[in-house]
Amino acid sequence: MNAEAGPVFRTRGLTKVYRSGEQEVHALRGVDFQANQGEFIVILGPSGSGKSTFLNIIGGLDRASSGEAWFQDHQLTALDERGLTQYRRDHVGFVFQFYNLVPSLTARENVMLVTEIARHPMPADEALALVGLSDRQDHFPAQMSGGEQQRVAIARAIAKNPEVLLCDEPTGALDSVTGIRVLEALVQVNRTVGATTLVITHNAAIRDIADRILRFADGRIVEEIVNSARKSPSEVSW
Asked: CA-to-CA distance for 128 and 99, rounded, in angstroms?
């Protein structure tokens, strides 16, 4: 962790209101947040607590209703659509619960989709090696397990050398053994590439691998815990 470099993310008074007919749904209710370079943060909370909305806003996929969100010295909440698109392309790697791989492309080719548009990409082979898939790079998604496909998705996300890696339920569709391998890949990437990593999960056991844990409830951060020591994914009881 490198706190001296200044925060990678900071938000102040972040709100998000969705309107559905006459109803208003308050997804975020004034979130103040900060993350430093290289931190590994786990975000917990029940469905509807605002976790994904928060991640989508700092990832440039959604807009806040009010408040401020900053990435380094860029005010995300002031960017237009073009600016947000460039921010996502240049700085952010995303990993979701569903892998979104192109079925007709090999693992290597799926990763290369990102390297062709990134500013400073790492070679696809290197990204796949980081997640332990050097021997599977010529396989198609249908020839791979769910955990392997998710690791290809992680390799694709990191191949652009992002400053931040945002993961929404990356182990949600996986069994414990496979999920641990995916978490090992995320930890390895966090340490090797230095990307500030935020992981949303319903699995409270994963908290032990983080530098810091945030718990969301009713659109707010209601608890923050700093781990004095991080466990390795293999030590996590699922």
From this structure: 15
Residue 232, number of CB atoms within 10 A of its CB? 12
Q: What is the pLDDT of residues 16-39, one digit of tens each?
A: 999 888 899 999 999 999 999 999
Structural domain count of the chain: 1
Tell me which range, 46-50, 177-181, 218-222, is most confidently predicted by mean pLDDT.
218-222
At 212, list the tokens. Answer: 């810091």
Helix (H) or strand (E) holding 146: helix 146-158
Helix-then-strand count for the chain, H and E: 6, 10
- Separation in Å, CA 164 to CA 36, 55, 156, 234: 10, 11, 13, 24
What residues contact 164, with CB distance under 8 A and at least 6 apart? 8, 9, 59, 71, 91, 92, 93, 195, 196, 197, 198
Within a 13 Å sphere around the CA of 65, how many CA atoms are in the beta-carbon half? 15
Q: Tell me how far apart the alpha carbons of residues 214 and 199 are, in angstroms, rounded to a whole number.
A: 10
Q: What is the pTM of this model?
A: 0.91
In terms of DSSP bridges, do strands 40-44 and 212-217 run parallel, antiparallel, or are they unpaired?
parallel
Instruction: State which residues form the domain around 49.
Output: 37-56+93-227
User: Where residue 192 sits, what CATH number does that domain have?
Assistant: 3.40.50.300
